[in-house]
Amino acid sequence: MFPRSLTRAIHTTARRAAADSGAAATATKVTLNLNTPFQSFFKNAQVDLVQLPGFDGEYGVTAGHTPIISQLKPGVIKVHVQRETEVQSFFTAGGFALTHANSVTDIACVEVVKLEDVDASAAEAGLNKFKAALASAAEGTPEKIEAQIGYEVHQALVAALQSN
C-alpha cells in the first residue's frame, strides 16, 4: 500500500495535469517567455508559433503542443507573433526550452541577439579567427575546446545570416 503522503501527491499531480490539459485545449496562442540572465525579450507574450533549434532537430511550438524539455543548439529562434505577417528572428548560442501542458513556453539562453542586429562581417571574422585557433590548438587542451565551441557558434551564426 502507498503511504498517505504519496497518495496525496499523486492525486495533487493528477489534478494539476487535468487542469493544465483543459487550459491547453482552450488555448489559441502560445504564451512565450524568452530570457537571458540580462534581458527579457518576451514576457508572457501571446504568439502564434515559435520555431526552435533543438539539439535533436528544429521544431515548432503552437498552442496545445505536447510538453517537452529541449536543449537548444546554436541557431535561430523564430517567433511568429502573427503567423504570416510579424516574424522576429533571434540567434542563440544555445540554451533550453520548456514547453508546458498549458501552452506556456519558457526559453532560457545565456546569450540571445536579434538577428537583424548582427554584423555579418564581424561574424565572418569570428568564424575565421576560431577556425585558425582550432587548427593550431593542441588536442585535448582547453584552448582546443574553446576554439571548437567558438567555431561551431560562429558557423551557425554565419549560416543563419546567409539564409535570412
UniProtKB/TrEMBL annotation:
UniProt keyword annotations, A-Z: Hydrogen ion transport, Ion transport, Membrane, Mitochondrion, Mitochondrion inner membrane, Thylakoid, Transit peptide, Transport
Annotated GO CC locations: mitochondrial inner membrane; proton-transporting ATP synthase complex
Keyword Transport: yes
Cellular localization per UniProt: Mitochondrion inner membrane
Residue stretches making up the ATP synthase F1 complex delta/epsilon subunit N-terminal domain: 31-105
Keyword Membrane listed: yes
CDD domains assigned: F1-ATPase_delta (cd12152)
GO MF, one example: proton-transporting ATP synthase activity, rotational mechanism
Family: Belongs to the ATPase epsilon chain family.
Protein name: ATP synthase F1 complex delta/epsilon subunit N-terminal domain-containing protein
Species assigned in the record: Pythium oligandrum (Mycoparasitic fungus)
